[in-house]
Design a protein that fits this description.
Layout (H helix, E strand, L loop, with lengths): L36 H12 L4 E11 L2 E12 L4 E10 L2 E10 L2 E6 L12 E5 H4 L3 H7 L9 E6 L4 E6 L6 H7 L4 E10 L5 E10 L5 E10 L15 E3 L11
Parallel strand pairs: 6-12
Antiparallel strand pairs: 1-2, 1-11, 2-3, 3-4, 4-5, 5-6, 7-8, 8-9, 9-10, 10-11
Helix pairs in contact: 3-4
């Protein structure tokens, strides 16, 4: 763990006198309190959240004895909350693509899985943050940014650049707090890798759901290209439909 320790070199002043004079010295030492692991990680999280970032991710969901694997890439600018994400979900031997676009307080989701539920000519589900709290676990996911790292507590160092802690739910954004209500989502350990540049380069999050469909989720995100511009094509209104007006089975879980 990097410790913010500043030790001022002793300042030695020798008084030179005539015969019989004694040397005199004065030592001045300044120290600072070493930074805690929790402070180190949360500072890295805050620093990372201020920069556009590229994220690649992979995860495994175990639900009712079935395993669903997923992976993808995304780019996001947290300052404007704009970004894109592409995911491949492996389910029952099939690969299901899913695309997400973030545009301020609105999220757009497109997938072949939803096509049969969409009106003719529509390709994107439109979800506003104000309605995401009604979507359970999906609402929490949709209010998260690709590569976003939640604030942590009880952090300890477990490797040269690796830390382990727990999600500090009290410090989550209000939209995510609202989405978690009734979602039966429990956070497990969170592992964070902090680079020498002070950015979060990797995060692994373990979560579980104790709702109607019990599930365990193990998700790892790797981040890079800090500060590079992000270009986001927002779907036209003619291709979108309000998700709250459609009853899509399984969407909220």
């Amino acid at each position: 763990m990097r410790r913010g320790l500043l030790l001022a070199l002793p300042l030695l002043i020798a008084a030179c006198g005539g015969s019989g004079s004694k040397p005199h010295s004065s030592v001045s030492v300044v120290t600072t309190t070493p930074k805690s692991a929790t402070a180190t990680v949360n500072e890295a999280i805050a620093k990372t959240a201020k920069q556009p970032v590229h994220a690649s991710f992979s995860g495994l969901v175990t639900m009712s004895g079935r395993k669903v694997d997923m992976g993808g890439t995304g780019d996001v600018d947290p300052g404007s909350r704009r970004g894109t994400m592409h995911v491949q979900i492996g389910l029952g031997g099939q690969q299901i693509p899913l695309d997400e676009v973030l545009d301020g307080s609105t999220t757009y989701v497109s997938s072949a899985f939803f096509n049969s539920f969409l009106p003719s000519g529509k390709k994107w589900l439109k979800v506003s943050l104000s309605s995401a709290s009604n979507l359970g676990a999906a609402g929490f996911a949709l209010t998260s940014q690709p590569g976003a790292v939640p604030p942590l507590k009880d952090v300890r160092k477990v490797g040269p650049t690796e830390y382990s802690g727990r999600v500090d739910e009290a410090k989550l954004p209000q939209a995510q707090k609202d989405a978690l209500k009734g979602a039966h989502v429990e956070f497990g350990q969170v592992f964070v890798w902090v680079g020498t540049d002070g950015y979060v380069h990797r995060v692994r999050v373990e979560t579980s759901s104790s709702g109607t469909q019990k599930a365990k989720i193990d998700f790892t995100t790797t981040m890079s290209k800090f500060g590079e511009p992000v270009h986001v094509p927002v779907p036209p209104a003619s291709q979108t439909v309000d998700a709250s007006k459609l009853g899509i089975p399984g969407f909220s879980s």
